[in-house]
Design a protein that fits this description.
The chain is mostly helical. The protein is built from nine helices and two strands, in the order αβααβαααααα. The longest helix is centred in the C-terminal third of the chain and has 35 residues.
């Protein structure tokens, strides 16, 4: 939700972009098959509910009903971020407001290539998940990481038709209906999508995810930030060791010949 219905940042499920946001913020989702330049048409839930109420009221006061009116509750690119822009904003916010106990420093690759996606899924999802599940078994814990990645892969595959293409949904009738509200009704049901600050909205969304979905503290982020820094250093160390290892292999190969 946006402002105050029922409270700013409220959310009660992991469906849609919220699940992706949490997966990326936890450092779990490392690659997504989507068009980085495409514009996701996401609308805050409280605005959708307001539109539903307004349209039901407009339908109810009609004396003659000969047609079926269709109202598209969409942003229609009035205010938007591309998939890449949304990811970049989310990365900055999760550094400022990190989720608790992240598995790795959040970083996600967006690609349209099915071949690149499959290779990266193998390298960044399947292999690490297999190692983590093996370690969890050693400690007597349930191995769930690979199963979780399988669900992520299935969802991304089914949604690829929408995430790889660009869509435009016009909302002229919706805007006209909202603009024609009386002054009294506007106080409770009116809104201007142009006033929505997307960066601040994402910030509230991540705080909402922490508080309402993950049951995490949003007032004291000391421990979460400390763990984020640890994961950041670990990420740098692993990458450095990998580069050194590859250079060593290359040196050995050249020295052999």
């Amino acid at each position: 939700s946006t402002w105050n219905d029922p409270v700013e940042g409220w959310i009660d499920n992991f469906n849609g972009p919220v699940g992706l946001m949490v997966g990326v913020g936890k450092g779990l989702i490392r690659v997504v098959r989507t068009d980085p330049s495409a514009i996701p048409d996401n609308v805050p839930v409280d605005l959708v509910i307001k539109v539903v109420i307004i349209m039901a009221w407009r339908r109810g006061i009609k004396t003659e009903i000969n047609t079926i009116d269709i109202y598209n509750c969409t942003s229609n690119q009035i205010k938007y971020l591309t998939n890449k822009g949304s990811l970049d904003v989310g990365m900055k916010i999760t550094e400022e407001i990190p989720l608790d106990n992240i598995l790795w420093k959040p970083r996600t690759i967006l690609t349209t290539s099915s071949f690149v996606y499959y290779i990266l899924v193998l390298l960044l999802h399947v292999i690490p998940a297999t190692i983590l599940d093996g370690m969890m078994k050693l400690y007597g814990a349930r191995s769930i990481v690979l199963r979780l990645y399988r669900k992520v892969y299935v969802v991304n595959t089914f949604a690829s038709h929408f995430s790889l293409n660009k869509w435009t949904f016009h909302n002229t009738k919706w805007n006209t209906a909202v603009d024609n509200l009386s002054a009294d009704n506007w106080k409770d049901f009116g809104f201007d999508y142009k006033d929505l600050d997307l960066h601040e909205y994402y910030r509230k969304a991540i705080k909402g995810c922490k508080f309402y979905l993950l049951d995490e503290n949003v007032d004291d982020l000391t421990a979460a930030k400390r763990h984020y820094k640890r994961m950041e250093w670990l990420d740098k160390i692993i990458k450095t060791l990998f580069v050194v290892f590859m250079l060593w292999i290359l040196y050995k190969y050249i020295a052999t010949y």
